[in-house]
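Human: We require from you a standard protein entry with sequence in single-letter code and fold as tokens, and nothing else.

Assistant:
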Amino acid sequence: MEYDRDWLRDRITELPRAGQVVAFRLVELLEAAVDVRDDDEFRLYKDFEPEKIRQALDHVSWGTPLPEVAGDLMSNLILRHSLPNANHRTAIAMLQFCIESVVADFEMPRTHLDDDTWKEWVDPYIVDSKRLITVRRNNVRFQRLEDLGVDLVERKDGIRIRLTDFELDMHWQEALSTYASRHEEHCTAFARSVLEQTDRPELVERSGPTKREFVDYLETGLVERDFRELF
């Protein structure tokens, strides 16, 4: 994985402290994913956009119930798409860190791609997430296709989208807002499912971290963490 590290470091250091800490951790996560996966799987298909990380953090409902904070964080990192690849994988890792920042003994259910847990319940959330963000960006095009009698479209990764399952008749700006909200709800449901998988239902009602608590944990609580274990 080749990129201009000096350029990226300069762009990241222009961000406020919270954005810097999250951005550097996301880059570490991306590099860890590359270390344990086939390079072909992690080709850089777009530029880094670190300023979008600040935007994502600004849209998280910090201090609300833990599933909402973790789900908002995951959703907004995915929606802003700041990394050149692996935005879903790294967002799941950030969801894990968000929970760990207030639950020190939290143990994340296995979410490795080659694990049965992934196939059974993680992958369906990711697939539906990709459907939502694709419709969000293409509702006008998809409405025209539907008007022409097309019912099914397929993304480049083989994910199929049945157009009749989605409301398409709206202005593109309304679609951005509507499907962003639906995506946040979807990721909050994923966060709740993660907590339920741990057999600790009381965590669903626990308050999530503030932005400062989360950033402090990323900066000081993960110093010795081997991120490759997450992939």
Notes: The mean pLDDT is 91. The chain has one domain: 5-230. The helical segments are 5-12, 17-36, 51-58, 66-80, 87-100, 116-147, 172-197, 211-221.
